[in-house]
C-alpha cells in the first residue's frame, strides 16, 4: 500500500506537469490559470474540501452500518502502519486530485465554457470525467451506477469551482474522498476498517460509487454546496475568465 501510494504520486505529478506544459505551449497560460493558489483563502478552501470529503465518506459508512450492510472494526495494533499509509497515500492522492481537478475543472471545463454555455460545459466535462472511470470500474457489478455517480461528482465540483472562483476546495475534497476510502475500505490491514456486503447499495470494494448509498451521499453534498454558496447571487465565472 505504501509503495503504491508513492508510485501513484510520481505518475500523477508527471501527468499534472504535462497538462501544465501543454497549456503553456498552446495557450501561453501559466499555473495560475488553473485557479490553484496557496494564499490564505486558498488554504482555507483546501481545508474545507478535506473536511467535506471526509465527512461525506463518514456519512456513507454510517448509512452502511445503520442499514446493516457492513460493520466497523478497530485494530489498535495497526495504528503505526495506518499512519505511514496515511502519509504515503495522502501524497499519492494529492497528486491524483491535483492532476484530475486541473485537467477536468481547471482546463477542460473552462475551455469548453468559452465555446458553449457554462452549463453545457459543466455537463460535457462531467460526462467525460465519469466516462473515464470506465476502466477503473470495469468488471464491477452495477458499473453504470458508478459512472453516473462519478459524473454527478464532476458536476458538483464544477459548481464549487464556479461559485468559489478557485480549484482549491475541489482539490481538498478529491484528496479526502479518495484517501478516506482507501484507508477504511482497502483489504490491507488498517486501524479502522469498514467491512461491507458488496451490492447495489454499498458498491464493491474500493468502489463505493457503484452503490446507491453514494447517490444519497451526493444529495447531502449538493445541499451543502447550495447552503455554502447561497449568498453568492452571481457565479464568478466571468470574473475568472478574464484572468484565464
Number of strands: 2
- Pick out the low-confidence regions: none
* Residue-averaged pLDDT: 91
Give the % helix.
55-70%
Q: What shape does the CA trace take?
A: globular
Spatial sequence of strands, sheet with the most strands? 1-2
Helical stretch tally: 9
Euclidean distance between termini CA atoms: 38 Å
Give the H and E element order.
HHEHHHHHEHH
**Rounded Rg:** 18 Å
Major sheet characteristics: 2 strands, antiparallel
- Summing up helix and strand content along with how strands pair, one would put the structural category as mainly alpha
Report the portion of residues in β strands: under 5%
Please tell me the total number of domains.
Answer: 1
Which characteristics define this entry?
9 helices, 244 residues
Word description of this protein:
- It is a single chain.
- The protein is mainly alpha-helical and 244 residues long.
- The protein has one domain.
- Helices cover 69% and strands 4% of the residues.
- It has 9 helices and 2 strands.
- It has helices at residues 2-27, 40-66, 79-113, 118-131, 134-137, 143-164, 168-185, 212-228, 237-242, and strands spanning 70-74, 192-196.
- A two-stranded antiparallel ribbon has the order 1-2.
- α3 crosses α4 and α6 runs parallel beside α8 (212-228).
- The mean pLDDT is 91.
